Each structure stands twice: as structure tokens, then as C-alpha cells.
Amino acid sequence: AALALDNGLARTPPMGWLHWERFLCGTDCAADPRRCVSEQLFVEMADRMAAEGWRDAGYEFICIDDCWMAPTRDKRGRLQADPKRFPGGIRKLADYVHSKGLKLGIYSDVGTKTCAGFPGSYNHYDLDAQTFASWGVDLLKFDGCNSDSLEQLAEGYRLMSLALNKTGRSIVYSCEWPFYLRPVQQPNYTEIKQYCNHWRNFYDVYDSWSSIKSILDWTALHQDTIVKIAGPGGWNDPDMALVIGNFGLSWDQSVTQMAMWAIMAAPLFMSNDLRHISPEAKWLLQNKEVIAINQDPLGKQGYQLSKDKNFQLWERPLSGRAYAVAVLNQQEIGGPQKFTFSLTFLGNGLACNPACSIQQVLPASRDWGVYSWISSLSVEVNPTGTVLLKV
């Protein structure tokens, strides 16, 4: 069986919408039908994605996370959706999602139970893969709770990868493998990329600036290990959920998440309520210039170049000898601050040699003109904000 590296999927970071973070494990549809993890929720989100420009912007997956299942498997040992919340079953939902030009993602777990206590896939990898394929599922997010040992965890991730490919259906494989390994041992990213299309490295993203900041700090700290392995077919997942359009981030912090997830070549899966989203959040999430950086076909992940007090300078090599450059101001007090750096820093001195044009992408699109190799650039950045440039 072909491995994930050869399955032809995720040539660029996958994009879509995910219920986890915004809707968590809401199962009481009687008390709160609009916030319940149900067939209705995914149908309504699919309608919005097709009608309001999300699909056309590149967000193609609509993903079910934990808590979709019935408490037990059926008589034939197969996973089944909760019959009250998903009365038509997953196959019917997949057909509806496909009719909108979208793809359906689903969730399971490598262990005996999911993180929320529903049936896991341990000892059922082939059966569950066949079930997902028969339903028309296009992506599997495979969590790592309730595994007895690291050996069992690793074996489960390998077996599910092989089982998915054996079905003959193209199913993107999203793993949590390194996240569960890291407290005990250094993950073997070369092996993980063999089996997975993207892999989670860090804690759940929360709807807060402290969460976004901790993810960026972790990524910079570990960039020597993780940046080199990312590329077409396999991506580092800093926890893909974009929480833009929710409650916890200011405008500048929302700009920072969008800019930095593009720099990190991260999967872009929104977790918000598309039925109630501000025009500003929609503009940011659908920004074609930022998405083009995230989806750049060269497929190289960006990295932190320097850190100076509260400022961080990041770059990402792009196709056509271009670079994306992010200037992040982590200061949480005072007003906008200026950061000045020499263009010789960029691209090992090659990005602006002998000259380059600079376009600001965020927080607003602006042409900065042409600069010579020996020029310095001065960028003013709001507290907790980011200025994203294309050089």
C-alpha cells in the first residue's frame, strides 16, 4: 500500500472549517439546537461555505470533530453516528456536502476511546477506514487519547494510514502523533511524514492571545527540527483552528494569527460560526494575498530570522524567488512601535540582491515600491499585531 507521502494529497496545506474550538462537544440539541454538534450544524455551514465565498477562497473541507458518534458501535462492530443528532447518517451528510462542491472530514482516535469518551478505533483500523470510505469521507482527523503505550500509539497511526490507502479512496490523513509523543520522546518527523498528511505538534488552540502567542513561541523554539520536514504532501499543524471571528482576539491579534499561519505553511481550518461573522473577519479570512502565501506551491515553511526585545522577524521562501516577511510586535502595552532592519537579512542576503519590490499584504494592502539590497526598512507595528510583506 502507498504511504501518505505518495497518496497525492495535501500538495498545499489543506483549508476548511472545523467544529472544534467554537462548538466543542455540544450534544444537547434540545436545549441549544444552534450550538449542537449535529447534522443541521454541518448542513448550515456547508450552505454558507458555498454561498458566501468561502469555498471559492479555497476552504474546501467541512470537518466533524469529536462527539459525533453514538456511544456504542453497531451490531456489526461499525462506528455509527448519534441517531438523534445525525438522523440521516454520515453518508447522507457527505452526499450533501459534496453537492455543494465541498469535502467532508471526520474524527476518530487511535486508542480505545476518543478524548470525549466515544468509541475509539483501536483494533478496528481496517473496519473504520472501510466505513469512512463507504460514507464518502475525504479527511480523517485521528486523535491520540487512550492509548496504552507509545508503541501502541505509533503502530495505530501506521496501521490507520495503510488502512485508509487500502480503501482506494483519497482520504487526507491528519495525525496528532507527535503531540502525544513529545512529553516522552522526540518525534521522528521523517517517519511521521511517511504516514501522515499533516501532524499536530502543540496544545489545542484557544480563543485567546496567550494561546496564539504560546504556539508561535513553541514553533520558533523548535523550528530547527520541524521546518525542514514540511512540504508538499505533509505539513506541520500548530493546531490548525483559526479562531478569527470569535470572541478572544483583538483585530491586531486576528491579523497576527492569519499572517503567521500563512508564514508557517499551516493547514487553515476555521473554527467559528459562519452564520454570524463580521465583515472584517470575513475579509481577513478570505484575503486572497494571504491565502496565496499559505498555499504557495514551493511548499516551504517559514521560520523566525531574529528576535529583538518584543519584535520578531520571520520569513518564508516563496516560488518565483519571492519571500513572505512578517514583523510581529509581541508588546502588550503602549502604542505602535517601529522596527528597522536591513534588507540584507532576507533570504540569506539574496532576497533583495540587487533590488526588490515590496508589497504590504496585512493589515492592509499597500505598495511600498522598490528598494536596493543595502536599504533598511522601517515598519510600524501595533501591539500584538503583525505587518505581513511580500518581497
From TrEMBL:
Which Pfam family, giving just one, matches this sequence? Melibiase_2_C
Q: Does the keyword Transcription apply?
A: no
Q: Which residues form the Alpha galactosidase A C-terminal domain?
A: 299-385
Alphabetically ordered keywords of this record: Disulfide bond, Glycoprotein, Glycosidase, Hydrolase, Lipid metabolism, Lysosome, Signal
Q: Main site of residence?
A: other
Localization: Lysosome
Biological process terms from the Gene Ontology for this record are: glycoside catabolic process; glycosphingolipid catabolic process; oligosaccharide metabolic process
Instruction: Give EC number(s), comma-separated.
Output: 3.2.1.-
Give GO cellular component annotations, separated by semicolons: extracellular region; lysosome; membrane
- Keyword Flavoprotein among record annotations: no
Q: Name one GO molecular function term.
A: alpha-galactosidase activity
Catalytic activity, as annotated: a globoside Gb3Cer (d18:1(4E)) + H2O = a beta-D-Gal-(1->4)-beta-D-Glc-(1<->1)-Cer(d18:1(4E)) + D-galactose; a globoside Gb3Cer + H2O = a beta-D-galactosyl-(1->4)-beta-D-glucosyl-(1<->1)-ceramide + D-galactose; Hydrolysis of terminal, non-reducing alpha-D-galactose residues in alpha-D-galactosides, including galactose oligosaccharides, galactomannans and galactolipids
Q: Which family does it belong to?
A: Belongs to the glycosyl hydrolase 27 family.
Report the protein's function. Answer: Catalyzes the hydrolysis of glycosphingolipids and participates in their degradation in the lysosome.
Recorded protein name is Alpha-galactosidase
Lineage, opening ranks: Eukaryota, Metazoa, Chordata, Craniata, Vertebrata
Gene that specifies this protein = Gla
